[in-house]
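Complex record, two chains
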Amino acid sequence: MDVFEQSEYERRIERTKERMLERELDALVITDPSNMNYLAGYDGWSFYVPQAVIVTHERDEPVWVGRGMDANGARATTWLAEENIHSYSDDHVHSPYDLHPMDYVAGLLDDLDAGDGTIGVEMDAYYFTAKSYQRLREKLPEASFEDTTLLVNWIRIYKSEQELEYMRQAARIAENAMQAGLDAVGEGVPEYEVAETIYSALIDGTDDYGGDYPSIVPLLPSGDHTGTPHLTWTDRRFEDGDPVIIELSGCRHRYHSPLARTTFVGDPPEKLTNTAEVVIEGIEAALDAAEPGVTCEEVEQAWREVIQSYGIEKEDRIGYSMGLGYPPDWGEHTASLRPGDDTVLEEDMTFHMIPGIWQDDVGVEISETFHVTATGAETLAEFPRELFST
Amino acid sequence: MDVFEQSEYERRIERTKERMLERELDALVITDPSNMNYLAGYDGWSFYVPQAVIVTHERDEPVWVGRGMDANGARATTWLAEENIHSYSDDHVHSPYDLHPMDYVAGLLDDLDAGDGTIGVEMDAYYFTAKSYQRLREKLPEASFEDTTLLVNWIRIYKSEQELEYMRQAARIAENAMQAGLDAVGEGVPEYEVAETIYSALIDGTDDYGGDYPSIVPLLPSGDHTGTPHLTWTDRRFEDGDPVIIELSGCRHRYHSPLARTTFVGDPPEKLTNTAEVVIEGIEAALDAAEPGVTCEEVEQAWREVIQSYGIEKEDRIGYSMGLGYPPDWGEHTASLRPGDDTVLEEDMTFHMIPGIWQDDVGVEISETFHVTATGAETLAEFPRELFST
């Protein structure tokens, strides 16, 4: 089975070309692996070497370019004709010969009659290094370059029915993995054992399908470390009195549905229970506020008004648009739920809302992935919104 | 327990400063997460936002700079004094305000009296985007920039006793995971189930310690897909007659020990058995050739002479230096075992040697991670070198 119908890829290309026209671009060089997947269907762990998908107005299909040994992977996963799959030889990889993969890409842009045109590049995308840009410029002195970092990401913000279906499948996986993780946490249990249990559930998936690898590993900051959200598991054993935040995501065909919950080893102190109640009231107010026509900052405001009513002052980003992703991130880097972001919510956008409150370095985080429907917001996972304990 | 003694970090900084002197650099801006870990000890899944470790001659310690919410993670994992931990506010992240994290880094370089000096940047390192470089240049018009992409990587090529110890621990994990993976492959078993079994073993580790997440997910190309080495697992079920290549790595404190083996669902055809024998003879010849004083290309040549004696012509990179790593790669991008690489092997270098032979699109890959000792090469894992079958 193909992951999407060809017509869906064609619509994506059409929208991309419309934006290229607005920006007066002759060619678009897409290097973000998520955007490469979105336009061409390409899916492989090969983003550790330079690769790209190139869109030009003259061609109906984009062109995939990557390492020679990955061309078969492009044939297997993209919807592209053989003539649109190009690859460089292995002496371009970590080359001692002053060869760089972007030298080949520059030659290809020339062949596509775009070498002296206006070329869009994703200046701030993962894996588009400073060197990649420098080599493209050196090899194409007649070209002019435009920064098109989020051009495709803004198209991705609207999800199709098939994309939503994969995100719902990812939500089923996330529910299973969260339950398994909460069940595994306990006094004396090493962090890695909980991480193993979660990973296992993430890949085992459901009775009907397996799970893909998530773009971010499961995070489970605990104890003093709930204030260090991005440290990964260690050999440390959970102790009585540890708060533990579990943040994970199910993944299906690279589409994510992240979920976070907080648990406590032992009997949670009243302060933590109270904090959790504020977080729950806040996230529910923000979910209630989310609907087409409302801005991202208004959603954050609904959260903030709740916590302010309890005397808590903080202005944070509490969420972001997301969906398709590769390591190191599942976020789309476009709209954020935070003060100053006046992006208007529209039907079929999807966000991960992850607010939290830390007091005396001990925090509670509870998150939901939601889909903006015609009339409101629907969470993808169904999982109890409460402070758990072991 | 700290991952390394402070004296080990100090030696790393000393060697880095020596190379900075040779290159006449006033400051070095390290953005590769592996190099940040190597110099400062920093370990967190935060490389999806810009961050850096800065080395200057005047300071004994490097300076860590990252996102505000990750400063606690830097306090928890680095050996640095509080004054050397700096962080930017969250409005720099995917900013709608035309703020970029590198604006803050530029200001910090100014504060460190390096804003008008010669600054080394890792032009081709993961996560150092074209935009990051552009912003640094714009904000520091008086500075001159030098490309120092592999400066720290070439220091990392020599492993200390403690680093080797972590790689040996990773090898124990790799052995367990490989055995579990080989046992799990079978007719009708879905690929994701084998991936789950392997991941589980990688994180469960051994009786004495858990495993860290590997920088590359386990890969298990099978059937026709043994020719697409970087596709990840799917819902597909293994069929009788499938060759399956398993490539994985144990990981301990971010140090890797990769291992690859090939198995077959059912009775392997004679052609595959014969191919496996050539691969085994070839890798053993190359391991025998590896010792201090020999060049990388001579090691590859030992492999090539064996396969040529069976009438197989191919000139490939069959290995690379490796150790410490973060997604998307565990390779160090310095020395490669391939024609044209005249790097001389020295004691305490470590390589992953991963040769393979494909015939009619069906391949055999068998790999070993080895340590260059005073007199030869020692594989880190002890795992039978043969073609497996279910």
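Note: The first helix of chain A runs from residue 6 to 22.
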